[in-house]
Design brief:
By secondary structure, the chain is α+β, with helices and mostly antiparallel strands. The chain has five helices and six strands; from the N terminus they run ββαββαβαααβ.
Length: 129
Amino acid sequence: MPDPADAPARYVFRVRFRLDPKSGLVAEPNRFETVLYRAADPPGEDGWLFFRDNCWRGDLADEAHFRRLTEDALGVPVESVSFSELQTTEAYLADLKAEIAEHLAEFNAESVTEVLRKYLGSSIRVEAD
């Protein structure tokens, strides 16, 4: 998977986590918020359906499940995780729309716009290429 900083598109999540030090230790503050980025896989390649499998109307479809996955990835107890947006270039978005158009039946939708609204809501931010 490409580095999210170098990817033409990336998913953005807000994560609130805590530190649980071993017995006899205290961390203050012990709760933190951060932004977590995940590179969006190229349309048509393995993983490109991440948005379909994890998002619904601009939110996480199963926040508890995604919170557990995030805990495993970060190695700390996660209190909450929420989907913020898909940051994308115009070129990536055009490729994504073309790939969605070829697979509309998989989305149970009649148009690409319907698919994007159904899974990402209004949470797409297009940046200049």
